[in-house]
């Protein structure tokens, strides 16, 4: 998974380097092992990148009126060639150098022939920017603007809004957006009878202030919490959500059930996505780095703990243990997604099946291993109901993927 960003000024007097820098920080929740920024000026491309989150990049005094940025797990992006610079969220089977060459010479043919599940932003050496989202629509891509001065392509709305931009609309599955110094134009290259939006993007990956796949993530997650309350009624004293992703779930469950909501945790340091952690130690200790329980919120209480997903179970087990240490009387766990049972082939960081706890143990064993009083996952039908349609990629939950 990755966050990709493109910023294009319609007048070369602009320097957009800071827009790229702060915009990609707004997307670093999509992956932070690797990041980079590439700008285009009359002197050509200037690229900085490193094995760090965007906020830790050292940004020299670089110039450029257009540029591309990346945050994620892949070391190769932003990918610079003799023809331009490229950032991709997803998986492309086409050789990147060849793809860059074709995008420069004939973008429509290049994208018609490209094999993969992806969204991309490409900036050519002669100053043309291209955004594209493949026909399945698994990966998001949006376009916004900064007045009449800048066009902005971003994986999610925070990449646009944090730099003062305004969302215009989502790029449709199979649609190309073409930006040059005179205009912004769109063309649907491929039609899809049924798009497949990434369910993990909805329940976990996207920021809660995002508008993705034609829906407000915060509102969807509140409704998931309400759906959990319909599916699983628990007698408890307090509902808490694991920050930040699961807080809307907890709010929704509390509203529907009438059980009081409490913050439950306080954050420690910078946000850490344990699913994206690069080593096992960080996966285990990441929950302490991310948050600490508030003793008065849980001591002597029957706690309903809601999390967005359960992958290996290690971080959630640690959280349950900490709640017990602080005096929680009972801990009932609700998961705001169906069970994860299969690795994602499209670049989302869902591990191998052998590491997925729900793929290897029955519910009663998982409950015992986790140290919980009960555990329940959102049903697949419940997810469809909340989203309002079935146009989702749920391969990691069913082992049935829409492509390959």
TrEMBL record:
<comment type="similarity">
    <text>In the C-terminal section; belongs to the purine/pyrimidine phosphoribosyltransferase family.</text>
</comment>
<feature type="binding site">
    <location>
        <position position="245"/>
    </location>
    <ligand>
        <name>Mg(2+)</name>
    </ligand>
</feature>
<keyword id="KW-0408">Iron</keyword>
<keyword id="KW-0479">Metal-binding</keyword>
<keyword id="KW-0328">Glycosyltransferase</keyword>
<keyword id="KW-0808">Transferase</keyword>
<dbReference type="InterPro" id="IPR005854">
    <property type="entry name" value="PurF"/>
</dbReference>
<dbReference type="InterPro" id="IPR029057">
    <property type="entry name" value="PRTase-like"/>
</dbReference>
<feature type="binding site">
    <location>
        <position position="198"/>
    </location>
    <ligand>
        <name>[4Fe-4S] cluster</name>
    </ligand>
</feature>
<dbReference type="GO" id="GO:0004044">
    <property type="term" value="F:amidophosphoribosyltransferase activity"/>
</dbReference>
<feature type="binding site">
    <location>
        <position position="396"/>
    </location>
    <ligand>
        <name>[4Fe-4S] cluster</name>
    </ligand>
</feature>
<feature type="domain" description="Glutamine amidotransferase type-2">
    <location>
        <begin position="2"/>
        <end position="182"/>
    </location>
</feature>
<feature type="binding site">
    <location>
        <position position="393"/>
    </location>
    <ligand>
        <name>[4Fe-4S] cluster</name>
    </ligand>
</feature>
<dbReference type="GO" id="GO:0051536">
    <property type="term" value="F:iron-sulfur cluster binding"/>
</dbReference>
<feature type="binding site">
    <location>
        <position position="308"/>
    </location>
    <ligand>
        <name>Mg(2+)</name>
    </ligand>
</feature>
<keyword id="KW-0315">Glutamine amidotransferase</keyword>
<keyword id="KW-0658">Purine biosynthesis</keyword>
<protein>
    <recommendedName>
        <fullName>Amidophosphoribosyltransferase</fullName>
        <ecNumber>2.4.2.14</ecNumber>
    </recommendedName>
</protein>
<comment type="pathway">
    <text>Purine metabolism; IMP biosynthesis via de novo pathway; N(1)-(5-phospho-D-ribosyl)glycinamide from 5-phospho-alpha-D-ribose 1-diphosphate: step 1/2.</text>
</comment>
<dbReference type="Pfam" id="PF00156">
    <property type="entry name" value="Pribosyltran"/>
</dbReference>
<keyword id="KW-0460">Magnesium</keyword>
<dbReference type="GO" id="GO:0009113">
    <property type="term" value="P:purine nucleobase biosynthetic process"/>
</dbReference>
<dbReference type="GO" id="GO:0046872">
    <property type="term" value="F:metal ion binding"/>
</dbReference>
<feature type="binding site">
    <location>
        <position position="344"/>
    </location>
    <ligand>
        <name>[4Fe-4S] cluster</name>
    </ligand>
</feature>
<dbReference type="InterPro" id="IPR000836">
    <property type="entry name" value="PRTase_dom"/>
</dbReference>
<feature type="binding site">
    <location>
        <position position="307"/>
    </location>
    <ligand>
        <name>Mg(2+)</name>
    </ligand>
</feature>
<dbReference type="InterPro" id="IPR029055">
    <property type="entry name" value="Ntn_hydrolases_N"/>
</dbReference>
<dbReference type="GO" id="GO:0006189">
    <property type="term" value="P:'de novo' IMP biosynthetic process"/>
</dbReference>
<dbReference type="InterPro" id="IPR017932">
    <property type="entry name" value="GATase_2_dom"/>
</dbReference>
<keyword id="KW-0411">Iron-sulfur</keyword>
